[in-house]
């Protein structure tokens, strides 16, 4: 038997790798958030100089940190979860909870968010919406697009989680160990 994973499992691992890479890249933006915010504060209160473009860039980065890294956090099981029972479940039962959670909650909510924000984002793109502030950035349409990045990455991670959970249930993949505390 080959050590090469089947197509669905290879797809899940590819999604995991992409979301991991993108999430880590977004996480590095926190360095810019700290430095950018400090510079804005020093310029404004130390020198009386406004830095609208930098302030807006910090807002864009903030959106990317939280929405861009959300799927990576989900992949790493880092989201808040009420697991008073889950932590005591066997690996197969946890996989079953994962399947139902993805099918009943994650995917419907993510798809609804994509549907509900589509007009908002597409209208911004149709006009190449720019900041209304003097000296602001001309890329508001890109900032609004981060919502769709969130949706796409969460849907893909949900698909990956479903595939892996199905493999656990069928015994073709060992159940991951749950870390307590």
From TrEMBL:
PANTHER family: 2,3-DIKETO-L-GULONATE TRAP TRANSPORTER SMALL PERMEASE PROTEIN YIAM, SLL1102 PROTEIN
Family: Belongs to the TRAP transporter small permease family.
Positions of the Tripartite ATP-independent periplasmic transporters DctQ component domain: 34-165
Main location: membrane
GO molecular function, one term: transmembrane transporter activity
GO CC annotations on file: plasma membrane
Compartments reported by the entry: Cell inner membrane
Record membrane topology: Multi-pass membrane protein
Main function: Part of the tripartite ATP-independent periplasmic (TRAP) transport system.
Record text on subunit structure and interactions: The complex comprises the extracytoplasmic solute receptor protein and the two transmembrane proteins.
Sorted UniProt keywords: Cell inner membrane, Cell membrane, Membrane, Transmembrane, Transmembrane helix, Transport
Taxonomic lineage of the native organism: Bacteria, Pseudomonadati, Pseudomonadota, Gammaproteobacteria, Pseudomonadales
Domain of life: Bacteria
Protein name: TRAP transporter small permease protein
TM region(s), chain numbering: 21-45, 57-74, 95-118, 146-169
């Amino acid at each position: 038997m080959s050590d090469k994973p089947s197509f669905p499992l290879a797809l899940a691992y590819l999604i995991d790798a992409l979301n991991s890479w993108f999430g880590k890249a977004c996480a590095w933006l926190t360095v810019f958030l700290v430095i950018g915010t400090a510079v804005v504060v020093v310029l404004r209160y130390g020198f009386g100089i406004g830095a609208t473009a930098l302030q807006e860039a910090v807002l864009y980065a903030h959106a990317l940190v939280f929405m861009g890294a959300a799927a990576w956090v989900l992949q790493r099981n880092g989201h808040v979860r009420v697991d008073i029972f889950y932590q005591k479940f066997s690996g197969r039962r946890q996989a079953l909870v994962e399947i139902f959670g993805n099918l009943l909650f994650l995917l419907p909510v993510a798809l609804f968010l994509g549907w509900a924000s589509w007009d908002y984002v597409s209208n911004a793109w149709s006009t190449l919406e720019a900041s209304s502030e003097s000296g602001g950035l001309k890329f508001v349409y890109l900032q609004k697009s981060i919502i769709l990045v969130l949706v796409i990455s969460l849907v893909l991670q949900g698909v990956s989680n479903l595939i892996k959970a199905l493999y656990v249930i069928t015994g073709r993949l060992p159940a991951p160990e749950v870390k307590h505390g």
